């Protein structure tokens, strides 16, 4: 009897989750075209983008780090990502990709404070202010070669993740 109740509850949660996703997908996305070095990009702005702008970077980053819905609304898509293919014969040249909104995965940066105490993949994290409107969030490995830079820029009073550069080896 308990097993049936658990199965019914799990099915209800799954169905409710599907219904919510259908509602979210019906919300139109705002788009604007932008040319960058002979590469036309379409910047997709999530419908909630205009809300919650005007916050300082620290407040923004705390929310961005842990709230997946807020995070996806604060990314400049397509998201520029650079990394090195260490298994390639030409591992000296970075690979540049542009991640579309539908291929984006949530980065849970809220757990990065615990990364120093792990047994593997240990890293420290720090934030550096480059300009008044630009911050870099670093993940720097401890004896393991991790080196990732998340660049944030303030555009129209909203902080956006502009690019990710993974220099890990």
From TrEMBL:
Organism placement in taxonomy: Bacteria, Pseudomonadati, Bacteroidota, Flavobacteriia, Flavobacteriales
Pfam families: DUF4348 (PF14254)
InterPro entries tied to this protein: DUF4348
Source organism, top-level taxon: Bacteria
Protein name per UniProt: DUF4348 domain-containing protein
Natural source organism: Aquimarina aggregata
Record-linked PROSITE patterns: PROKAR_LIPOPROTEIN
């Amino acid at each position: 009897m308990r097993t049936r109740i658990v199965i019914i509850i799990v099915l209800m949660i799954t169905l409710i989750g599907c219904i919510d996703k259908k509602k979210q997908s019906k919300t139109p996305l705002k788009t604007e075209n932008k040319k960058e070095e002979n590469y036309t990009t379409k910047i997709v702005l999530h419908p909630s983008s205009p809300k919650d702008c005007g916050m300082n970077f620290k407040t923004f980053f705390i929310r961005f780090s842990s709230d997946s819905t807020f995070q996806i609304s604060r990314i400049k898509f397509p998201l520029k990502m650079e990394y090195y293919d260490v298994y390639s014969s030409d591992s000296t040249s970075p690979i540049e990709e542009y991640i579309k909104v539908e291929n984006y995965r949530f980065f849970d940066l809220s757990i990065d404070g615990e990364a120093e105490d792990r047994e593997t993949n240990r890293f420290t994290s720090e934030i550096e202010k480059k300009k008044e409107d630009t911050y870099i969030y670093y993940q720097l490995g401890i004896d393991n070669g991790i080196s990732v830079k998340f660049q944030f820029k303030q555009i129209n009073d909203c902080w956006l993740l502009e690019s990710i550069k993974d220099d890990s080896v």
